[in-house]
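Quick one, tokens below:
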């Protein structure tokens, strides 16, 4: 079930939300509720993605997916998707109406819109930009003084999201083309997608360092050094490694924000 939900990325996004909540000084209950709401929403997106792509995955023989091999019954995933969707709505509501509205729009208007058609168009990047860009606001709108996240935080999140999208798609470019999926990475090609992703991840990291008020902390270069290595890895490595490196960059950027206070 976790594999069909794209569990690694889903847990990483929930971890980012949790770390941002800690930085935002949310009450412990609100921190737990926001993190759980984000995780539930991400699970629905992952399960919805594998359900929607099942005919295409079977056509190209992607045996690494449990729905394709039959190891996981489709009915189980449908039920899990419904339960996670309901949990997302309830948990989001507990976080407050402003945060709930943004998170539900993020899940339905970005994540599932991507699954249902945008992934095959020039606009495949837009759900990632909007979802990751507004994720910080899901947290800040649940705080004791609800407010939209600073613009630089939104920009950093959007850059991370689009960079992750470009890298996550690279291993499947050929199979996607065979089944009629031609999103932005397919139209740019592998080389240009890698270059653009590396630039976006670097921009996101610089925003995380330079965005907060005041001078950058003295230890910032020590964090940017491994970020630089990971950015190079996204450009040079193959398979799923570039996407995993992008997720690691996102987590490092958030850790940097938390440490900076």
């Amino acid at each position: 079930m976790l594999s069909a939900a794209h569990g690694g990325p889903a847990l990483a996004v929930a971890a980012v939300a949790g770390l941002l909540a800690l930085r935002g000084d949310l009450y412990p209950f609100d921190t737990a509720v926001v993190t759980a709401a984000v995780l539930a929403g991400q699970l629905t997106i992952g399960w919805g993605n594998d359900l929607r792509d099942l005919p295409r995955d079977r056509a190209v023989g992607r045996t690494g997916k449990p729905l394709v091999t039959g190891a996981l019954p489709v009915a189980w995933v449908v039920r899990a998707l419904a339960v996670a969707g309901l949990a997302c709505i309830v948990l989001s509501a507990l976080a407050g109406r402003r945060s709930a509205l943004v998170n539900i729009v993020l899940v339905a208007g970005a994540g599932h819109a991507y699954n249902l058609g945008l992934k095959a168009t020039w606009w495949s990047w837009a759900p990632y930009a909007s979802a990751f860009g507004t994720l910080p606001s899901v947290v800040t709108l649940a705080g004791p003084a609800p407010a939209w996240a600073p613009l630089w935080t939104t920009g950093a999140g959007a850059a991370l999201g689009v960079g992750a999208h470009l890298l996550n798609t690279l291993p499947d470019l050929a199979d996607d083309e065979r089944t009629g999926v031609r999103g932005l990475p397919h139209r740019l090609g592998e080389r240009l997608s890698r270059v653009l992703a590396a630039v976006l991840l670097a921009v996101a990291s610089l925003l995380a360092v330079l965005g907060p008020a005041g001078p950058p902390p003295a230890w910032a270069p020590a964090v940017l050094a491994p970020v630089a290595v990971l950015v190079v890895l996204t450009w040079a490595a193959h398979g799923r490694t570039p996407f995993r490196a992008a997720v690691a960059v996102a987590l490092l950027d958030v850790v940097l924000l938390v440490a900076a206070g």
